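Reminder to self: C-alpha cells first, then the designed residues, so the page reads top to bottom the way the pipeline ran.
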C-alpha cells in the first residue's frame, strides 16, 4: 500500500554544501512544490564564480545563513539537509521544532570524526581492519618493511577521495612494495593511516529509522574507479546498484543491525549505514557515511521509490514514513567531462529527462550548461531493471542520449571481468547467506 498523500503543494528548503541535493530540488519543483536551494557557501576562492552558478536559472537560490535568519517565515517548510555541514544551523532548527531531515551533530560525527565513529561501533562488535596511524612517511615505510607479507591501504586523514591509495597487485608482498614506493613520493607531513587490506566482498547497508525504530533497509554495491576495468583515480562513485533488503536479513543483522540499540536510545529519525567487507575471517567495518545525497540516494529514489518525492521527504521529516519501494535493481552511472569547465552545453531528449539527476549545471536562456564547480561530474543517468545486467543496460541507454563536450562514463557495470564487479559481489553475498 502507498502512503496517504498530503496537500498537493508543500514548501521545501534544500540546505546544501556542494549541491548534491540539486536534483532533488528540481524534482520537488517539478511536482509543484515551492522550493528554495540554500547553499552554505564555499571557502575555495578559485571556484567562487562557478559556485554561484550551480542551479541558477533552474531553481530559486538563497544563502543558508539568510534562510536561518528568516526561518520563522519558513516554519511550515520541510528542511532537507544534503551532506553533513552547517551543524549548528541544523541543530538550531531541530531545537525550535522545525521539520528537518538529514544532517545534524550525530551524522556529522559519524562521517567526520573517525575516532568517535570507531569507538561507537566497536562497543557493538563492529571491528575495522587493523590500522596504524602515521605522520611521517619514513616511519610508515619502516613499518611496511617489518610487515612485508601484509598488504595495506593508504588513507589520509584529510584530502580528496582520489588521495586514498590502493596497491594494484593482488599479491600481498608485491602490494606492500607498491605502497612503499608510493610513500616515497609523498610530499608534506600530513597525517594518515595504513589499514590492512582485506580480500572479500565490499558492500554498504543503509537502514532508515523513525523515532529510533528501523523501518526500511537497502544495499548499495558501488564501483569507485573512474575508468572502465577499475582503472583510473578513485572517484567517490563511478556507478552503483541499489536494492531493497529485509530488515531481518543477515547482512543487516551483522552490520547496521548491531547498532539498533544506539538509534533506539536516541529516538533517531533518519538513516544509519555501514560500509564493510565480508571476508573469510569475518565482517570488517570500514566507515559510516551518514550523508544524505550521495549517489545511492538518487538511484534509490529515482528508480525504486513508488511515491512522489515530496511525499517521501515530508514523511521522513515528520516521522510518518512507511516504505513503498519496488523490488528489483536501480542502477546509476556518473557522467563526467574530461576536464572540469564552465559553459559546456548539456543536451538530452525530454524522454529521458526524469531519469537524470543533475549535479553541476545551470540554465542560461534556453541552454543547459555546466558550471564547472563540482569537479568533473555533471549528472547521473539512472534506470531500473529486474536484474543487475538489465538495470545496467537500461542506464547505458539513458547515458548514450546525453550529450556534452568531453562526456565520459563507465561502460562495464553489468560485467564480471573487473575486481569490483557488483554482479559477482551480489552472487557471493547470496551464496554466503547474507542476502
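Designed residues (435 positions):
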Amino acid at each position: 500500500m502507498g502512503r496517504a498523500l498530503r496537500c498537493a503543494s508543500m514548501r521545501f528548503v534544500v540546505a546544501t554544501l556542494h549541491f548534491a541535493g540539486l536534483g532533488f530540488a528540481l524534482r520537488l519543483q517539478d511536482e509543484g512544490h515551492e522550493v528554495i536551494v540554500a547553499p552554505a557557501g564555499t571557502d575555495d576562492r578559485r571556484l567562487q564564480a562557478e559556485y554561484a552558478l550551480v542551479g541558477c536559472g533552474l531553481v530559486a537560490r538563497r544563502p543558508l545563513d539568510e534562510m536561518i535568519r528568516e526561518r520563522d517565515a519558513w516554519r511550515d517548510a520541510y528542511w532537507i539537509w544534503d551532506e553533513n555541514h552547517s551543524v549548528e544551523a541544523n541543530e538550531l532548527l531541530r531545537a525550535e521544532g522545525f521539520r528537518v531531515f538529514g544532517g545534524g551533530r550525530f551524522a556529522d560525527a559519524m562521517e567526520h570524526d573517525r575516532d568517535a565513529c570507531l569507538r561507537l561501533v566497536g562497543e557493538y562488535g563492529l571491528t575495522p581492519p587493523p590500522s596504524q596511524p602515521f605522520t611521517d612517511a619514513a616511519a610508515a615505510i619502516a613499518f611496511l618493511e617489518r610487515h612485508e607479507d601484509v598488504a595495506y591501504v593508504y588513507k589520509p586523514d584529510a584530502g580528496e577521495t582520489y588521495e586514498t591509495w590502493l596497491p594494484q597487485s593482488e599479491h600481498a608482498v608485491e602490494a606492500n612494495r607498491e605502497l612503499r614506493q608510493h610513500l616515497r613520493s609523498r610530499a608534506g607531513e600530513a597525517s594518515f593511516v595504513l589499514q590492512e587490506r582485506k580480500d572479500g566482498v565490499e558492500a554498504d547497508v543503509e537502514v532508515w529509522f523513525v523515532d529510533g525504530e528501523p523501518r526500511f533497509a537497502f544495499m548499495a554495491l558501488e564501483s569507485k574507479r573512474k575508468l572502465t576495468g577499475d582503472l583510473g583515480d578513485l572517484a567517490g562513485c563511478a556507478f552503483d546498484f541499489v536494492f531493497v533488503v529485509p530488515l531481518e536479513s543477515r547482512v543487516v543483522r551483522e552490520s547496521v543491525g548491531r547498532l539498533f540499540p544506539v538509534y533506539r536510545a536516541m529516538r533517531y529519525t533518519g538513516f544509519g549505514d555501514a560500509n564493510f567487507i565480508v571476508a573469510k575471517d569475518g565482517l570488517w567495518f570500514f566507515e559510516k557515511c551518514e550523508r544524505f545525497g550521495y549517489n545511492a540516494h538518487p538511484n534509490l529514489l529515482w528508480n525504486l521509490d513508488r511515491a512522489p518525492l515530496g511525499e517521501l521527504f515530508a514523511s521522513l521529516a515528520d516521522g510518518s514514513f512507511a516504505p513503498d519501494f519496488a523490488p528489483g535493481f536501480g542502477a546509476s552511472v556518473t557522467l563526467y567531462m574530461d576536464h572540469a569547465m564552465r559553459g559546456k552545453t548539456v543536451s538530452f531528449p525530454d524522454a529521458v529527462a526524469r531519469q537524470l539527476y543533475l549535479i553541476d549545471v545551470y540554465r542560461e536562456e534556453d541552454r543547459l550548461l555546466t558550471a564547472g564547480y563540482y569537479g568533473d561530474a555533471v549528472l547521473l543517468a539512472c534506470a531500473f531493471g529486474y536484474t543487475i545486467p538489465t538495470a545496467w543496460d537500461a542506464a547505458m541507454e539513458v547515458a548514450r542520449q546525453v550529450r556534452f563536450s568531453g562526456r565520459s562514463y563507465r561502460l562495464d557495470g553489468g560485467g564480471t571481468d573487473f575486481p569490483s564487479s557488483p554482479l559477482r559481489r551480489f552472487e557471493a553475498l547470496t551464496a554466503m547467506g547474507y542476502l
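The chain has a mean pLDDT of 93.
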